[in-house]
């Protein structure tokens, strides 16, 4: 059975599609570690949701657990960040981090350019280089 | 200045991927590709007066694939279309922003290249890059030790990046 064909996606070339699809905010109404989270939900979240209409924002209480933000991406992966005992400004930073990511694992970028195109000038070959004269 | 790559295809030997075409060695004098320093916000157009610069760019234009050496934040990046450029985090940029690159040191193809002095005139190209992601990298550990001196340190950084996708790389004649 031949392997299914997958489209080669090049986000940004024709159109740019933001990769963050959904952000789920969990908080506990009683516990102290959710204090900053509740303040963020009241103050800043609506503004964020209006500025980013492509992100589905869900707020759900999760009793007796630390506050957590879960981001779901277009490649099906998710990133979970625990924001216990954080202030609203720090939580806004974590939300921005999730929003700007693409669902991939954190990795070391070793090269400055990631390319799948063939080299323009071709690979050097000793038979086609400048001939030397003896 | 136009530079040509000499005799890459001279000879009868076949390459595996591409067809062989003999290209004569041609050198052009560095007269008129008057390149001006392009600032990030505005690009000054230089009038190409002499005819030899027009023929240089049309030589380049007749080729199929192009590359460019773009300078972003004083660092060179050799790019073709559809590439991803990995930069240190740019603070004043949002996802989806399109950045026009106008500090191009070299613009080339298989057989010819235009080298800017210091940059190629921006009327010869149109290069755009889209911000696609601003991720955090993996933890990088720097370990320093001086032996027999009771000195060792571990530094951890999690680098912040901005990824740009080169959405357009065109040579204009």
Query: Sheet with the most strands of chain A?
Result: 4 strands, mixed
Helix content of chain B: under 10%
Assign a percent range to the helix content of chain A: 10-25%
**Uncertain segments of chain A:** none
**Strand line-up in the sheet with most strands of chain B:** 1-7-6-2-3
List low-pLDDT spans of chain B: 6-52
Helix-and-strand structural type of chain B = mainly beta
H-E string of chain A = EHHEEEHE
| Strands of chain B, count | 11
N-to-C SSE series of chain B?
A: EHEEEEEEEEEE
Total number of beta strands of chain A: 5
Global shape of chain A: elongated
Taking Cα atoms only, what radius of gyration of chain B do you get, to the nearest Å? 21 Å
CA distance, first residue to last residue of chain B: 16 Å
* Share in β-strands of chain B: 35-45%
Largest interface: A-B, 35 and 48 residues
Name the strands of the widest sheet of chain A in spatial order: 2-1-3-4
């Amino acid at each position: 059975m031949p392997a299914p064909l997958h489209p080669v996606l090049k986000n940004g070339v024709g159109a740019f599609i933001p990769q963050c699809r959904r952000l789920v905010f969990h908080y506990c109404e009683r516990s102290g570690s959710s204090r900053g989270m509740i303040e963020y939900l009241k103050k800043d979240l609506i503004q964020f949701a209006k500025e980013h209409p492509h992100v589905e924002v869900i707020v759900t209480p999760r009793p007796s657990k630390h506050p957590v933000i879960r981001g779901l991406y277009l490649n099906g992966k998710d990133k979970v960040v625990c924001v216990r005992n954080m202030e609203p400004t720090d939580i806004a930073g974590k939300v921005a981090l999730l929003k700007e990511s693409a669902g991939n694992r954190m990795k070391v970028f070793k090269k400055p350019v990631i390319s799948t195109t063939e080299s323009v000038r071709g690979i050097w070959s000793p038979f086609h280089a400048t001939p030397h004269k003896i | 200045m136009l530079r040509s790559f000499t005799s890459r295809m001279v000879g009868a030997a076949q390459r595996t991927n591409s067809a062989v075409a003999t290209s004569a060695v041609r050198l052009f004098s560095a007269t008129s590709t008057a390149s001006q320093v392009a600032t990030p916000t505005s690009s000054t157009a230089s009038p190409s007066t002499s005819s030899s610069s027009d023929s240089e760019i049309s030589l380049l234009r007749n080729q199929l694939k192009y590359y460019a050496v773009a300078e972003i934040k004083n660092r060179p990046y050799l790019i073709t279309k559809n590439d991803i450029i990995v930069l240190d985090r740019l603070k004043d940029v949002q996802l989806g922003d399109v950045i026009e690159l106008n500090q191009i040191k070299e613009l080339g193809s298989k057989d010819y290249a235009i080298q800017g002095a210091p940059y190629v005139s921006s009327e010869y190209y149109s290069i755009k890059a889209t911000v696609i992601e601003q991720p955090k990298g993996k933890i990088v550990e720097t370990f320093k030790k001086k032996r027999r001196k009771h000195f060792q340190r571990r530094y951890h950084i999690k680098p912040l990046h901005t990824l740009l996708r080169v959405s357009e790389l065109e040579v204009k004649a």
